[in-house]
Bifunctional protein FolD
Amino acid sequence: MSNKLINGKEIGAQIRLTIQKEVKELVDQGITPGLAVILVGDDAASHTYVANKEKACAQLGIYSELIRLPKETTEVELLAHIAKLNTDAKIDGILVQLPLPKHIDEQHVIESISPHKDVDGFHPVSVGKMLLGQPTFLPCTPHGVMKLLQYSNVEIAGKHAVVVGRSHIVGVPMGQLLLQQDATVTYCHSKTPDLAAMTTQADILVVAVGRAKMIKAEHIKEGAVVIDVGMNRDENGKLCGDVDFDDVFEKVAAITPVPGGVGPMTITMLLVNTLQSAKAKVKLA
Ligand SMILES: Nc1nc2c(c(=O)[nH]1)N[C@@H](CN(C=O)c1ccc(C(=O)N[C@@H](CCC(=O)O)C(=O)O)cc1)CN2
């Protein structure tokens, strides 16, 4: 494999070994970290991600509970499940798989999760603490990207990082975490008039927009590090990122592939957060 590739599977596996060891230490003290995942509806991709989360928990010795609910589930019914999990001593982390069916208010659901069990890092309390640089649950995908950069020895301080995309889940926290590591950060989005003029200034380019292969060689500065958060299907139904991998490859210093880049790190960081939550419970007791 080319040394230009930032391999999320390998880096994730290294981190998972550490988690496994720490989980065992907790279990030896009589505490088993527990994660509850709620899946509403029948989105095929969500089913895959949730199955992968369950498998990863089982491999690392984390207790997991999957609550599958039909797509007709009302918001009130969903909130009742969350209320129970909020006070369930076996559960350290609660994750509601997104996206939710349209009739359910996502933000309302996120805000109903106890901040102590918010292993997704989406609750306003977690977001506020993250912005202030205080210890909290960091959102899994941006946190995973930071780990990829760290494990790949990519220097961040003093570099120009350009984030394309401004979702609350990825783009916005991504820029903040890079800023906290002393990058100069530029956000780009659908209203940015000349995208290439911005992205060609990036030493580190993070793309999280959900549009297959939209970033081409013309958007890249020679020697840039490119992180592709996209997860799309191309015209042949093959999984691909937001970056046209083949088009940019010659120009970049390093790049994450899709699959095998950021995706596996999202699940790894969920396990990190679940462990962190279980450890915090021990400290409180
Ligand atoms: N509550 C949440 N919902 C969603 C999140 C999230 O962080 N919290 N993120 C995404 C989906 N996601 C995790 O839930 C996720 C996406 C992709 C992968 C992954 O490992 N992808 C593989 C390819 C998998 C495949 O073959 O389809 C890869 O990139 O190698 C993991 C997790 C939206 N919802």
Notes: Residues 48-49, 95-98, 120, 140-141, 231, 239, 258-260, 263-264, 266-267 surround LMY7XDAE (CB under 6 Å). Residues 262-284 form the longest helix (23 residues). The radius of gyration is 19 Å.
